[in-house]
Amino acid sequence: MCLRSLGLGVKDEVITSSHTAVATVAGIEQAGCTPVFADIDPVTRCIAPASIDKRITRNTKAIMPVHIYGQPCDMDAIQRIASLHQLEVIEDCSQAHGAELNGQKVGTFGILAAFSCYPTKNLGGTGDGGVILSRSQENADKIKSLRQYGWNEGRESMIAGFNSRLDEMQAAILRVKLKHLAEDNQRRRMVAQAYNHAFQGLPLTIPFMGNDQLHAMHLYVVENVQRNDLFAHLRENGIGASLHYPLAVHQHAAYAGRIGGSEDLGFTERFYKQHLTLPMYPELAKNKVMKIIEVVCDWFSDRNQ
After folding, report:
1. DSSP tag of 266
2. 46-99: per-residue pLDDT in tens?
């Protein structure tokens, strides 16, 4: 709906990351646009501005940065690129409710931003739902029409739209939960800080948390070259570790070999060989956090004996 509201469609290219949910790319294609993949920054794991710059063609119309795992993208650099090439920026904030960059909330940098409110998200309902932020009243009006069959006030379809309404029950639940978002995110960061402190000195890459950023910490994702062995050890000891995305989007059968930029995603592909998600949610009790830390540290200790 964001892309459609901007009048984008066939032959218009949108640069995004393959390190994301398939939903990001599905949305681009459902709008009739062509996705193009840029590589990630190995530190932040977000889309790399330098890689975006290399993908720009005369058909490029927009950049869709994904604030993956709650980590803010380098929006200053992305906006400079967008301004130079007269491109629109649509933020995918589906995992980053409440995240900030230099005191500014993600979702307020681009012309439009999309948030998922799926139950597992930092701001989640009890079913499917989402939120769009718009800088333009004109785009907001188009999106409101698109979400309900392209209707005008007289319920005449002026454009071909969708059935994508947020039902009142979900809206009511989200309004209440929104009041607790900042507190819940702080609890997530406290869990992350406990992990970070305990894992210092281990051959384990932990999430980047910059001084100018407020990480939403939707997921706590680590990296290790022996990921599969560590994963098996955690599961054997009752720890709900997971491979949140087992594959990058370009590695899925439905997208393999047909998305531009897929041949040059070295950092993305390396990440997918090493990443592992540890439990992360606001209600995670301190004793559970300590148990997770103990099991992780024991695995490394056994290998050093």
Report:
1. H
2. 999 999 999 999 999 999 999 999 999 999 999 999 999 999 999 999 999 999
- Length of the chain as a residue count: 305
Type of residue found at 73? C
What digits encode the pLDDT tens for the residues 198-253? 999 999 999 999 999 999 999 999 999 999 999 999 999 999 999 999 999 999 99
Residue identified by tokens 């218009």 is 12
Following DSSP, what letter does each residue of 127-186 receive, concatenated?
S--EEEEES-HHHHHHHHHHTBTTB-TTS-BSS---B-PPPHHHHHHHHHHHTTHHHHHH
Tokens of 142: 């188009």
Asked if 280 and 122 count as a contact pair (C-beta separation under 8 A), the reply is no
Distance CA 268, CA 127 (A): 31
pTM over 0.85: yes
Q: What angle do CA 249, 21, 81 make, to 5 degrees?
A: 80
Q: Are 29 and 37 in contact (CB under 8 A)?
A: no
Instruction: Answer for the pair 192, 163: CB distance below 8 angstroms, yes or no.
Output: no
